[in-house]
Design goal:
Elements lengths: L1 H16 L5 H9 L11 H26 L15 H41 L12 H6 L20 H6 L2 H13 L4 H11 L19
Helix pairs in contact: 1-2, 3-4
């Protein structure tokens, strides 16, 4: 399911990116998270896994340290009975254990720092999650009181643009504007009707009818 969802999302994203009117739909698709993907492991979860691995390796590693004379609490360890193969194998186990233990110590500190940073972030920032992509300059220019170029775009009721703007704007920009109206819950067909009403209407030329001739009785 995870791969199917990712494949379908990618297909829809390519379609949306190819249509100027669907630029906001493309942004929303890009923000979606795979609901079937396993949740990422936190630093605390990874630290617990490493510590469990260290605890599992500890008894054997400690025993090998004593046999190799690496344990200060053991005096006069008999190493002469160990073969070179035994000594090499024990040294490898001890080295892996020491490396894992060092990693566990680092992860433990990372957990502390991450926890402190999380608390600081919550206290410092109450900014809402962006509801839209960065506002394009052309849209901010149309509605300077509702939008700022480069800032996250929010939904607002867009007034009907002038017929002059509509006639001069590139087709891709007009389609992008209709996509914005769609995204905000507006009705593009109503907006297009309002624009047409601003356009000069063709003059109606009255048609002259030939005078009806009277017939004498």
């Amino acid at each position: 399911m995870e791969e199917q969802w990712a494949s379908e999302r990618g297909r829809l994203l390519q379609i949306a990116k190819g249509s100027p009117r669907d630029w906001l739909r493309a942004w929303e698709l890009g923000q979606q998270q795979n609901p079937f993907a396993p949740p990422p492991k936190s630093t605390l979860d990874r630290a617990k896994e490493i510590e469990a691995d260290v605890a599992r390796r500890a008894p054997l590693a400690q025993a090998y340290k004593k046999a190799l004379g690496l344990d200060d609490s053991v005096v006069g360890a008999d190493q002469e009975s160990l073969t070179s193969e035994d000594r090499e194998r024990m040294q490898t186990v001890v080295a892996v254990f020491d490396r894992k233990k060092a990693i566990a110590d680092v992860k433990r500190e990372e957990v502390k720092l991450e926890h402190a940073a999380t608390i600081a972030d919550k206290e410092r920032s109450n900014a809402p999650t962006p509801t839209g992509p960065p506002t394009p300059a052309w849209l901010a220019g149309m509605f300077p009181n509702q939008a700022t170029a480069g800032q996250p775009l929010t939904k607002f009721s867009a007034a009907t643009p002038s017929a002059q703007w509509w006639n001069q704007a590139p087709e891709s920009q007009r389609q992008a504007f209709l996509g914005f109206v769609d995204w905000t819950g507006g009705t593009p067909t109503d907006l297009l009707g309002n624009i047409r009403q601003q356009l000069p209407q063709p003059r109606r030329v009255p048609t002259s009818r030939p005078a009806r001739q009277r017939t004498s009785v």
